[in-house]
Specification:
Elements lengths: L29 E3 L1 H6 L9 E14 L5 E11 L4 E3 L1 H9 L9 H17 L9 E5 L15 E2 L19 E2 L5 E13 L6 E12 L1 E2 L1 H9 L8 H16 L3 E8 L5 E8 L15
Parallel strand pairs: 6-8
Antiparallel strand pairs: 1-4, 2-3, 2-12, 3-5, 7-10, 8-9, 9-11, 11-12
Length: about 280
């Protein structure tokens, strides 16, 4: 079924929104991945696998007796889906559970899985469902906080002058033997594609191949500072720039962004299929 495509400008971002507190799946606003992927040279199947790991910190509903219930939700959106869900619409959708009576947490989980799965395929057959896990209050205390593992690039004393993506800053040392290493920076910042509001994140880059110049890589990460793009799009741009410019044999890019509106979004892209990283928040999240 062909469905007219949404654009980010048509979403509720930056607009006054009605507060809906009765369950309404129609609040979800899908945006096609293909438009921004075409900008970075992806016109068919991507060279990467991956997922977007969401955490919802503000989820509540009423049980059958009208007593409020609360939970955390971990949501996994497969990168092969045709669409992302705009985050404000996701927040409005979760708000719509607030005064809705639902018999069990399992039913809440199943509704979220069904609705998100339908949204990310937007009119097409669901080929890979979203994953949804609810954590009830008795498990809150077991939720860990852990920083991304790897060599911290932020220790480098570098000069930064570029604040729009500058892939030409990326280079490798072809004179030395290939390496396998994991590099981390907490200096990733970009802006919302529509509102221009800041998005703060940490990024982990794991690769095998000719060694990437670390100073240039950190300057490249910093160059996203004034760039307007959604989280998922920034991570895919980073992946494709490194993949194209540095030509590693294997590459994984994983970013964890601080929460906004009770949601954090953590895209993970890798050149080889494998287990998802644990959805563990960092101190800033």
């Amino acid at each position: 079924m062909n469905t007219p495509e949404n654009t980010p400008e048509q979403s509720q971002l930056g607009k006054s929104s009605a507060y809906v507190d009765q369950y309404d799946a129609s609040l979800l606003f899908p945006i096609p991945r293909a438009t921004k992927r075409a900008e970075i040279g992806i016109t068919a199947h991507p060279v990467f696998f991956g997922a977007d790991l969401w955490t919802a910190f503000e989820l509540s509903w009423l049980n059958a007796k009208g007593k409020p219930q609360v939970a955390l939700a971990h949501i996994t959106v497969p990168a092969e889906s045709t669409h992302i869900v705009e985050s404000k619409s996701f927040k409005l959708y979760l708000n719509s559970f607030n005064n809705t009576r639902i018999d069990s947490a399992d039913e809440v989980r199943d509704r979220i899985r069904r609705d998100i799965s339908a949204a990310i395929w937007h009119g097409s057959a669901v080929q890979a469902s979203a994953g949804v896990k609810l954590l009830m209050p008795e498990k809150f205390d077991a939720e860990p906080v852990h920083e991304l593992d790897g060599f911290n690039l932020d220790r480098l004393d570098i000069e930064c002058t570029r604040y729009q993506p500058a892939p030409e800053l990326l280079s490798v040392n072809t004179a030395e033997a290939p390496v396998t290493e994991t590099l981390v920076s907490h200096l990733l910042k970009s802006n919302c594609l529509v509102t221009g509001q800041p998005d703060w994140g940490s990024v982990q880059i794991s690769y095998s191949g000719h060694q990437i110049d670390q100073a240039g890589l950190l300057q490249y990460i910093v160059s996203f500072r004034n760039h307007n793009e959604f989280h998922e799009q920034c991570v895919e741009r980073i992946f494709m720039d490194i993949w194209t410019r540095c030509k590693p044999t294997q590459l994984t890019v994983y970013a964890r962004y601080t929460r906004r509106g009770g949601l954090d979004i953590n895209p993970w892209r890798t050149s080889a299929p494998g287990a998802l990283p644990p959805n563990v928040r960092t101190a800033r999240q």
